[in-house]
Write a structure and sequence with these properties.
CATH architecture of the largest domain: Sandwich
Distance between the termini: 22 Å
Helix content: 10-25%
Number of strands: 24
CATH class of the largest domain: Mainly Beta
Shape: globular
Largest sheet: 8 strands, antiparallel
Strand content: 15-25%
Length: 442
């Protein structure tokens, strides 16, 4: 029998036919920061509330209290640690929401007349000394983020809209660029709580998640130990020494030379378009040569069922009504959202894209002609040409979980999820610990 989590995963079909989350971030100044596509299933602000049959029972069992307690733990060695909670207030017309410093009072910024307007209240929640826990209370929010910083407070601002100007790792002039910060993602609505650790843009502070439901059952995502970022940096350096590619260039040090964060390959390419340009060329050529002579079957894990490409010699994966997929380049593969992986109005195409792009990132397409059900996590990242960032990040997490690329939630039927999500239709409280001290694998 499938586990409860697996049954709920199938119920929500979190990778199938997804839309992009509503963006609330705007960048100060004339040029807007290009947001990375984030595909987090139930964390998508366009998530549909389930209806009918078992779906109705799940929805009926879901929390309707309108608020959720979040325990914020300082597991660093510093007493200068802050938390921030942002999102869209579902029960307040999706208004921009920030939690004030008392960890209980909502703040809805007014629409400013100028970009980069200073936020009018204190939203820095001090977590106190190492080992301390602060309990925050939030309303129902979509597209939420729980931010942490160590050593200094973060700077947020508001643009006309209103739109939140979030800390950026892409803009050298950003006031937060030399601050050690990170975030987890959360959606809390009338159906469920869904949260995950995200490494899609970058990896920095260790963050763990625990979600306890009203029956006192707890789901736990371990995150990194305290030395996890250094472990990742060491792995990327070793990989560069092995293949001569730009992996070690993803390592970012602070102005005083201390390890600060590690960018994902997609973030590296956004800042330096020449990076990894030819990295995937030989692997992609080998994949298309193989499927010029045999079909590639993709289980859409949706109403379209299994779809099979038509073998041909045109270097295109042709899925008929599901669309045709030309050869992707490195930027397409690492972003999962450009070139042949750009989503559109064709629902069938949009279910193929996550599974095909995940198979490229995990380098499983030469192992099996059936994806995602033809391979399992022990076979991911085994080809010399693969997303080594994702490989190394997963290996450094105590339970191997966390979003390392946008479609890292693609999972074989009955398989072990890789994305590090926790979710429940009957949540009691959620705990986030920052810093990695006392981190453990459940």
């Amino acid at each position: 029998m499938a586990s409860y989590i697996d049954r709920i995963r199938k119920l929500f079909r979190r990778s199938a036919n997804r839309k992009q989350p509503t963006q609330t971030t705007a960048q100060t100044g004339a040029s807007a920061q290009k947001p990375l596509n984030q595909h987090d299933g139930a964390n998508d602000s366009n998530q549909q509330t389930p209806k009918g049959g078992i779906e109705a029972k799940v929805a009926k069992a879901a929390t309707a209290s309108g608020s959720l307690q979040i325990r914020l733990q300082n597991q660093t060695n510093s007493s200068t640690v802050y938390a921030y909670i942002t999102g869209q207030a579902i029960q307040n017309n999706n208004a921009l929401f920030l939690l004030q410093a008392d960890a209980k009072t909502p703040y809805y910024p007014p629409n400013p007349s100028q970009t980069g307007t200073k936020i009018g209240v204190n939203i820095s929640i001090s977590l106190g000394a190492p080992g301390d826990t602060i309990t925050a209370t939030i309303p129902q929010i979509a597209g939420g983020r729980i931010w942490f910083s160590v050593g200094a407070q973060l700077t947020f601002a508001v643009n006309p809209g209103p739109g939140l100007v979030e800390p950026s790792v892409f803009t050298p002039a950003d006031p937060n660029i030399n601050i050690n910060f990170g975030f987890a993602e959360v959606t809390f609505n009338s159906s469920q709580v869904f949260a995950n650790i995200s490494y899609v843009d970058f990896v920095a502070l260790p963050i763990s998640l625990s979600l306890t439901d009203t029956s006192n059952n707890t789901q736990h995502t371990s995150g990194l130990p305290a030395n996890g970022l250094q472990t990742i940096a060491n792995g990327l350096t070793a990989q560069t020494q092995k293949d001569g590619r730009r992996w070690s260039s993803l390592i970012v040090n602070s102005s005083n030379g201390q390890l600060l964060r590690i960018l994902s390959p997609n973030s590296g390419i956004l800042l330096n378009p020449s990076w990894f340009q030819t990295y995937w060329t030989d692997y992609v050529n080998a994949v298309y040569a193989q499927y010029n002579n045999q079909p590639l079957t993709i289980d859409t894990q949706a109403s379209f069922g299994n779809v099979t490409s038509t073998a041909n010699s045109s270097n295109v994966l042709n899925y008929g009504a599901g669309g045709s997929f030309a050869k992707p380049n490195a930027a397409d593969i690492f972003s999962c959202s450009t070139g042949p992986f750009a989503t559109g109005s064709n629902g069938e195409t949009n279910t193929i894209i996550p599974r095909l792009s995940a198979a490229f990132n995990r380098s499983t397409l030469l192992i099996s002609n059936n994806t995602p059900n033809g391979t399992n996590p022990s076979q991911y990242y085994t080809n010399p040409t693969t997303n080594h960032y994702a490989r190394i990040v997963h290996a450094a997490n105590l339970d191997g979980k966390g979003y390392a690329f946008p479609y890292d939630d693609v999972t074989p039927d009955g398989g072990v999820p890789q994305e590090g999500a926790v979710f429940s239709s009957s949540p009691a409280y959620m705990t986030l610990a920052v810093g990695g001290n006392n981190a453990y694998a459940a």
